[in-house]
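Hi team, as promised in this morning's meeting, here are the two structures we talked about. I've kept the exact order from the run log so nobody has to guess. The first one is mostly here for context; it's the second one we should focus on when we meet again. Sequence first, then the predicted structure tokens.
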Amino acid sequence: MNIDDFTANKPAFVLEEFFNGQLRGWGITMGRLGGLQNRFSIEAEGRWDQSANTLALREVYTFDDGHVDTLVWTIIKRSATSYEGRETHIQGLASGEQQGNAFHWTYTREVPTKDGSTSTFGFNDWFWLHEPGRMTAHASLTKLGLEVSTLNVFYEKL
């Protein structure tokens, strides 16, 4: 997929508008061979600072096995369509682009497991706005260049 494939799609997905405020989400993780690995819920809250072009976003993922993963993002809008992000457990910067109803986000992150250990994955995330307040995301997780699992996530603004 290419972000430019979505340029004409409506409604327009504006990251800082969608993630400003309280959200909830839910999803599943599928293994490389298609088996269900887990289910999760998400509680999220974002605050857009227009003067700094910065979104502070906190997402708390609670998995069905009981472990929790908290992401605390600082996302900077660099232009009308490009973003960069920082988060405690990512390597370097996350890079994002927006066109039409889509947003594409890539980064490498240490992910915690139930036993407290971590594993590092590459993330290739796609977000699509369906209608105001409702969005779908799909993430491909890679290790050593091979896809090892995918996440399918649904968000709604509260």
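And here is the second protein, the one for discussion:
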Amino acid sequence: MIIFLIGMPGSGKTTIGKELAKQTGSIFIDSDIYIIEKEKLSIPQIFKTKGEDYFRKAETNALKDIIERSKKAVVAVGGGTPCFHNNMEVMMKGGKVIYLKASLDELAKRIEADANERPLFSKHKGPKLKEKIASMLDHREKYYAKAQMSFDTDNIAPDIIAKQIKGLVE
């Protein structure tokens, strides 16, 4: 079975995904890294040289490749992935889709602590960062809400969340 983890940057997709993969004996795949390796370009380079539409199509192709090639995987997808090209439907047909939710305050705290890893947010601090996150979440929530399950990640250890997910999907 393939488990897709969706949610905002900072929601815990990678951390929980790695733990869930370990607990279920699955491989862990970060769809952004999958695209980087396939394209041999960083995501900012793809955006700059080929454009966002190309990148969004690459996300869809990556999802289809992963579904075709993987039997047992936990896949953390980019925060915007569910919002383009019927990707939610692709993921829901290919496995279980789980929305990892975190509060605005928690997302801001995690993103600020990890600003170098998140170029989309690097120019934003404090209240401006929260505004940026809130605006993105407002747009994305309708897509995230289609997930078969959702889990709040505020103040809960990643291994506990992974164990809860494992108990519901196995």
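Starting points for discussion:
The chain has one domain: 2-169.
The chain has eight helices and five strands.
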